[in-house]
Amino acid sequence: MVPTPSQTAVLLIAHGSRHAPANDDLHRLAAQLAGRGDYSIVEPCFLELAEPDIRAGGDRCVARGATRVLMVPYLLAAGVHLLRDLANSRDDLRRCHPGVEFRLGPALGPHPLLEQLVSERIRQVDAGEGAPAFVSSFDLAGTYTPIDRHGA
After folding, report:
1. Would you tell me which CATH number, out of the four given (3.40.50.720, 3.40.50.1400, 3.40.630.10, 3.40.710.10), belongs to the domain 5-143?
2. Domain boundaries along the sequence of the chain
3. Distance CA 46, CA 110 (A)
4. Does residue 77 surpass a pLDDT of 90?
5. For 48-67, b where at least 16 C-beta lie within 10 A, e where not — what string?
6. Mean per-residue pLDDT for 61-83?
7. What is the rounded distance in angstroms from the CA atom of residue 21 to the CA atom of residue 144?
8. Alpha-carbon dihedral of residues 122, 128, 129, 133, nearest 10 degrees?
9. pLDDT, tens digit, for every residue of 21-49?
10. Which helix (H) or strand (E) segment is 124 a member of?
């Protein structure tokens, strides 16, 4: 029997950063994907340096009723983190939740859409649309306002 969409969760997995605003992109993406309605359970998590970690994210999916969890790496390449660390996390979650299927997906690249995105960024930089000027972590800490991780 194939699980219904309401039983399937998406667990988005990013590396994580000590700089909290850098992690907000994944939380926003999770909220946007959840808002689309394709999957009723969408949880963000991080390999390291940020919370929730992968185990907690997987546990949240199961607590919300998932019988199948699609582990989607928000990573560009199939390096050590994907091939070793995320595979180990998948295996750990399988042991902790034996009645739940955990599927680990591939990295984002290489993929034609990623090539298109990089080409668009090249165009933007060439047009003078560079990254923001360097700001120290100290300066950012004073202006940082966390997003609502449970709302929009």
Report:
1. 3.40.50.1400
2. 5-143
3. 21
4. no
5. eebebbbeebbbbbbeeebb
6. 93
7. 7
8. 110
9. 999 999 999 999 999 999 999 999 999 99
10. helix 112-126
What single letter denotes the amino acid at residue 43? E
Say if CB 65 and CB 7 are below 8 A apart.
yes
Rounded CA-CA distance 75/12 in Å is 10
Helices 54-63 + 87-96 axis angle, to 10: 40
State percent of the chain over pLDDT 90: 71
Mean pLDDT, residues 112-130 taken together: 91
Cβ-Cβ contacts under 8 Å for 107 (sequence gap 6 or more): 73, 75, 76, 77, 78, 79, 82
